[in-house]
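Two quick folds needed for the group meeting slides. Do the first one here.
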Amino acid sequence: METLPPGAWLPIAFAVLMALSMLLYAMLDGFDLGVGVLLRRTPEEAERDRMIHSIGPFWDANETWLVLGVGLLLVAFPMAHGMILTALYLPVALMLAALILRGVAFEFRAKAPEAQKPRWDMAFQAGSVLAAFSQGWMLGSYILGFAEGWAALLFSFLVGAIVVAGYTLIGACWLVWRTEGALQARAAAWARGALYATWAGVLVISAATPLASPRIFERWFDFPQVLGLAPIPLATGALFLLLHIFLRRFPRADHALDWVPFAACCAIFALCFQGLAYSFWPYVVPERLTIFEAAAAPESLLIILVGAGLVLPVIGLYTVVIWRVFGGKARPLSYY
């Protein structure tokens, strides 16, 4: 059994907080990015307005988790922050540009004349696709330990497409939950299409991850470690099957279970994230730097932990409040 260094609880605490922030970002901002990807799939302007209205109260708060996760990486693991952002400079720059484009398009489409709204819808969709793809590109590069070469680049691009599909799935399931009528039926059809692409993508990433290093391969397949990992793919497969069955039953007259597809998607995201965390632990930079080697001084971590302890409850409370206040089905959008 590995012996942890003195004061190991501080790097572990920050690794858990950072991982939780990134997971919440993927689930929460994932659905509004997915809605953006789907925005122009419907020709009805009223339905596009309804889609935007369904994410309007949430999308700004969702991006807070990304800021928190990157901030924790910077202050708690500064050496890893420099290595990761240096390796991912281009996709990070593209993601930030895409998020800016989304924000501008979101605000301008609300004030633009009717004739100009399709242009801003196109900009919002383009920003959503590019942001999702850039995040997948970063994930693919991370899985391969920032390897270089055409094969690594192609894998990163493939994972980028997979993440777009995953966000499309959770965005469509969000619309199944938050809309009704014809738009809900469309959303269920979109979700069914994205479901199979996401399922195939999870298989691709699962096949590539243990090949990234002998250490990960051993952790996946050696006994008894394999027993600890086995429940993750089994539960993930069961959730994909549940989604497949459930999405075939829309539209429904009873809306009491409309939340189930979205909850199942969130559970799939959490399980996939758990599988990656299991594979790469305790490395923060794959095969190069552990969380213990990259951590800031214990005195600094204690001060930062106090600050995080004050900030996290505020963000969590704000998130809970807006979900309660703006719960239920999205209604026709009005700015007046």
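Then this one, please, same format:
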Amino acid sequence: MSHTYAVPRALSRTEFIALMASLMALNALAIDVMLPALPYMGEALGVTAENDRQLVLSFYMFGFGATQLLFGPLSDRFGRRIPLLIGLVFYVLAAFLAIFAPSFGVLLFLRFVQGAGAAGTRVIAQSVVRDLYAGRAMAEIMSLVFMVFMIMPIIAPGIGQLLLLTGPWWTIFLFMGGLAVVIVTWVFLRLPETLAVENRRPLTFTAISQGFIIVFSNKVAISYALAGTFMFGGLFGFINTAQQIYVGLYGLGVWFPLAFAFMAGFMSLSSYLNSRMVQRVGMRRLSHGALLVFTGFSLIWWLLTLAGPVPFAVFYGLLSLIMLGFGWAASNMNSLSMEPLGAVAGTASAVFGFIQTVGGAALGLFIGRMYDGTLQPVAAGYLSMGALAVFCVLYAEKGRLFGEGS
């Protein structure tokens, strides 16, 4: 089944996709622009253990994940615009206050607050898309949103590197806050309310608990959400260690942002290809094939790490193929988890965002802190996460892959 609704007249389809992607890109920016600056932050704020610098990323993710459970019911009750704008204001304030952080602990607290404010962007962007689209049409829009969103990981490390050449580490927070102000203004002026009054749910314990019951009792939806969680866990494990691998292990130095950008480009390419094919082939067939690519090449990578040091060209080629599989699977799995739950889209987006973000960040933190100067822990993380995702999909589909669904 596939159907679509018209985007409100105030927005063209192109502007709608660009705005949804920009909202989600604020999260990618808050993570990836930090990567070149982690050593400088650690040095300025007295962090001696190299792996502790990863907490700058993890605290943001924990704040981003935990607060989604709040934004979901709020957006189902009050509509999409007001909760979104409130969250964006918190993001902006935390970014600007981080400039003056006197200690690493205060910086981590502000990163948590920044992530908490950004939670609304993830929950509400997905809810707005689900308000307006369903079925394969929704998957097509989400793929295009994800493609534009993936431009940020391509350019963010380079932006961070450029900012570090022109100023101290806190100029990154100044840039983040300024860009967020632009997006807040765009939302305020251009995004109409997409949740009709008659479709709003009361903000009562009974209504909220019923919404959560509807979400958790849907086996297909929750299984695909867990599959996405495991895949994000593998990705976050790599992102946490990316600066250490590219700069410390392979000695790329200032070329690190370019290497990171090229890899992210594979994810963006796969999302674009998915948007062109999903209407004809279907979400399940594409995501299942991509998940097997992700897991299969992770297995090859891990086996190679057991044999000794992996040449950079081999590592980079395998990682690019893994990221191609990730990008192709991720947007489809998000759509498959949201598809059966249009009546509680805000709550569903919040629950799945919480599971994927907090779960993925915790798994990624565990994988990242296992880093020992070799690729073996990261490759093992990708493989184990891929295998668990395959198990979840098999459970959702009653042991069969590449079906069309009901």
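Slide caption for protein two: Residues 1-5 have pLDDT under 50 and may be disordered.
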